Structure to design on (324 residues):
């Protein structure tokens, strides 16, 4: 007790704009204050910037943030009920490479990630889903897909889910407006702390309201900001039975951080049985001779679209890692 998990210098380095190491991103701002045994531990529901909305002793309150301890939804923090004095070590996190550089932590201490996509508009981009699958497999976080807006599905959209199901992803067909699939979805969400992610307009907030009803538990914390529940501007947690559901702002792209080209294949588990047959042990399945994965694609045993996406991701990571 009384020692920081990571020094101020390490924390500063972890927040640098050149950071690509996800593990260091998780460690950012983690700190055990000297008087930790005299403080209480609270769960962060939302970060307002200068304040955090936290649950303490069963009540939702606002506490001041210290600049050196930026919080995210899901964090467990040390507090005296007025100020955040430190952050406990984080469990599994959802994070992405920010457009302005550096790492953007989205939510922490997760048990699963649910990616919400639309059966109509905005249209499905499989490569976007592939990125989440790669990330979650590397971080060992279970991933599920909620295919929303099934009241007006695009032709062939269900068939386009099959490669993801073959890769071991659970896919739920649902419509918030028709109350379709919500019971199964809620049962899935009760497995533990869940973060909902996806593009803007896929209906995340509508799904949350449909499953939780109008009396969303965090509304007392949100009321002072006058933010509507239907326009999410920061990751925000809601109580769901004995666990939490974390809603996140819609994003345009999911940029990788701290991932090596050789790790990309973890998001394509259906390649594994063929990869062991490649001529070279370090085969990246691009243009190498004797590549059994490429042979399986040519023979129709691996989905051609998935293979193309895999190659795009590998080449993209290699390009990002070139010396500047």
């Amino acid at each position: 007790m009384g020692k920081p998990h990571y020094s101020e210098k390490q924390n500063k380095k972890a927040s640098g704009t050149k950071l690509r190491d996800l593990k260091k991103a998780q460690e950012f701002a983690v700190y055990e204050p000297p008087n930790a045994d005299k403080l209480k531990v609270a769960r962060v529901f939302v970060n307002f910037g200068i304040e955090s909305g936290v649950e303490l002793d069963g009540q939702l309150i606002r506490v001041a943030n210290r600049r050196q301890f930026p919080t995210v939804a899901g964090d467990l923090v040390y507090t005296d009920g007025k100020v955040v004095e430190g952050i406990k070590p984080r469990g599994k996190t959802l994070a992405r490479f920010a457009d302005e550089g550096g790492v953007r932590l989205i939510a922490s201490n997760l048990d699963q990630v649910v990616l919400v996509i639309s059966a109509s508009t905005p249209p499905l981009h499989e490569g976007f889903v592939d990125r989440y699958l790669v990330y979650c497999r590397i971080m060992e976080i279970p991933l599920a897909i909620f295919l929303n807006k099934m009241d007006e599905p695009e032709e062939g959209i269900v068939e386009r889910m099959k490669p993801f199901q073959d890769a071991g992803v659970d896919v739920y067909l649902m419509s918030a407006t028709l109350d379709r699939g919500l019971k199964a979805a809620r049962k899935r969400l009760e497995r533990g702390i869940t973060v909902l992610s996806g593009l803007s307009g896929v209906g995340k907030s509508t799904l949350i309201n449909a499953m939780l009803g109008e009396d969303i538990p965090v509304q007392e914390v949100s009321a002072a900001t006058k933010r509507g529940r239907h326009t999410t501007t920061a990751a925000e947690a809601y109580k769901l039975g004995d666990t939490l559901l974390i809603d996140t702002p819609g994003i345009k792209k999911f940029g990788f951080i701290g991932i090596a080209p050789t790790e990309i294949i973890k998001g394509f588990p259906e390649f594994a049985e063929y990869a062991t047959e490649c001529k070279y042990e370090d085969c990246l399945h691009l243009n190498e001779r004797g590549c059994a994965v490429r042979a399986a694609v040519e023979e129709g045993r691996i989905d051609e679209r998935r293979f193309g996406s895999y190659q795009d991701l590998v080449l993209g990571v290699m390009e990002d890692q070139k010396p500047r």
Observations:
- The chain has three domains: 8-87, 94-247, 261-320.
